[in-house]
Write a structure and sequence with these properties.
Blueprint (H helix, E strand, L loop, with lengths): L28 H15 L5 H5 L5 H15 L19 E2 L6 E3 L1 H7 L17 E9 L5 E9 L5 H9 L4 E7 L11 E9 L2 E9 L3 E9 L11 H15 L6
Antiparallel strand pairs: 1-2, 2-3, 3-4, 4-8, 5-6, 6-7, 7-8
Helix pairs in contact: 3-4
């Protein structure tokens, strides 16, 4: 996976050349590759121009999404960018090991512009109030964690997780990790590695009685070498994100 150092967000001629579009894929792999391509351009400094190159229209739409994220953070207090009606918060900073995770409003607006979201691509979030966010580990800004979550009533956590992985083409079969929450009865944290476009991409999904979350690791979190993908770290980060995002509801 290409790495270009610190992420930049201002459009201009300095962005990296756009990779050719991936061939059509079954299931959600094509969607994952789109997220990966966006992350490559963001990390290379492509900024809002990236979306026009990916068929996302001009930068107005992305800027509107960015403004929405900023408005959510206003009036809610630090670390309370909670959209109306949702049960999941988007903290500015999430304590995690080995480094804190920091919310990136600009990258969120670019990676998940509201008009480009397709709820049918996320059957595990059906009936839930959906929230998107992007985080960077403080010690490695070239890692991007794309987080797609839903809050509400979840009757069958294991089934939700199974639905999340079903459309993906996996290079490493999903396996369960310790959620590190003794109060979360029946909750599941499952992670695996998908392959597409020559890259191995780590994915984690959690589900409990009130929330479901998908976390994809792109930028330096993915790699052209399967051995270099750190699934254990993404599992830890996903567990920490869940704890921070859930607004004190029982698991």
């Amino acid at each position: 996976m290409p790495s270009t150092g610190l992420p930049g967000y201002e459009g201009g001629a300095s962005f990296a050349p756009q990779p050719p579009p991936p061939p059509p894929q079954k299931g959600r792999t094509g969607l994952i590759l789109t997220v990966v391509l966006v992350a490559v351009v963001l990390l290379a400094g492509g900024g809002f121009l990236a979306w026009s190159m990916l068929g996302g229209g001009d930068d107005t739409e992305a800027r509107q999404g960015q403004g929405q994220s900023q408005r959510q953070s206003q009036g809610q207090g630090q670390g309370e960018n909670t959209p109306e009606g949702a049960k999941l918060a988007i903290p500015e900073v999430v304590k995690s090991t080995p480094a804190e995770l920091r919310y990136d409003a600009k990258a969120t607006a670019q990676m998940y512009p509201p008009a480009k979201r397709d709820p049918s691509s996320y059957p595990e979030l059906k009936g839930l109030a959906q929230v998107d966010s992007v985080y960077h580990p403080e010690n490695n800004p070239s890692v991007m964690l794309g987080v797609h979550t839903g809050g509400g009533t979840v009757s069958n956590a294991a089934q939700r997780v199974q639905e999340a992985f079903a459309p993906n083409e996996m290079a490493v079969a999903p396996k369960d990790f310790d959620l590190q929450d003794p109060d979360a009865k029946g909750a599941v944290l499952r992670c695996g590695i998908s392959k597409g476009g020559g890259a191995y991409i780590p994915l984690c999904v959690w589900a409990d009685s009130t929330s479901v979350g998908d976390v994809i690791g792109v930028g330096d979190a993915s790699s052209s070498s399967l051995k270099k993908v750190d699934l254990k770290t993404l599992a830890q980060q996903t567990s920490d994100l869940r704890k921070a995002m859930r607004s004190g509801s029982a698991g």
